[in-house]
């Protein structure tokens, strides 16, 4: 089978590999569509501290179960599934409180073990979520990116009368806009980014007001409006201090960033307004919820997609995704 392998940092190859066999409690998926994420690019360039090499990348993927390991019901063969990349132990403290995404022995498919940019991939049977016929194959790999927004908003508990501010109109920011508008009915969703093309995409995805902070600071443009809910989906370490300064007293701030650089903020900036700070990593069992949102039409994954490429053009697809954020949002690979 053909697989996208990062042999070592900087070295991406489309390799011929043996087809994996499902272990007990695993299924094998014949992958048909997969989408590219920023973290795939980070593993390629050696910027993901958790990645081990060589690695088949890809953690956003969809396909059909074509084989099952021992102890898995063989009637699952033929099921259309989206695969949750979070593999957890099930019994450590975070697992016991419903937070498998920060399991003490967390393994992420496509990072710690081989992923879905491949004609076949194996995963624990419980990670393969059956999809209703109403979700088309070519959009089904986008369940995973929406689980990121599902996870952070579960902490933030958005209300219709919140004034929400989202930093960054990349894929994470856009899924957050859709979830705040479509699922929670937040009436005011404000979005800030430096690229006008991305801000136009934010509006297409439901943003009520957009701000370009490439020339003028956001504070001046907000004219005293104090957001009550802020999501940092731009993930720059400088954002937290600005967010705290702009926030309403009693606001909630959600962080998705993973930078290793320190961010500088005083205790006073947080405590004087009694701000609540939430961090969110990957997703904790959010696949069923997002599949339900898609089935109900509350979110529109097609609005994120700008390109489809065949697997053979993986290097071109990854480079476009990385270098051209003005024209490129979600890029989907077609395996056959
Ligand atoms: Zn991702
Ligand atoms: Zn665990």
From TrEMBL:
Domain Alcohol dehydrogenase-like C-terminal residues, every copy: 171-295
Recorded GO MF terms: oxidoreductase activity; zinc ion binding
Alphabetical UniProt keywords: Metal-binding, Oxidoreductase, Zinc
Record InterPro entries: ADH-like_C, ADH-like_N, ADH_Zn_CS, GroES-like_sf, NAD(P)-bd_dom_sf, Zn_alcohol_dh
Listed PROSITE patterns: ADH_ZINC
Residue span, Alcohol dehydrogenase-like N-terminal domain: 24-132
CDD domains to which the protein is assigned, alphabetical: Zn_ADH7
Cofactor(s) demanded: Zn(2+)
PANTHER family in UniProt: L-THREONINE 3-DEHYDROGENASE (PTHR43401)
Similarity field: Belongs to the zinc-containing alcohol dehydrogenase family.
Name under which the protein is recorded: Zn-dependent oxidoreductase
Organism of derivation: Pantoea wallisii
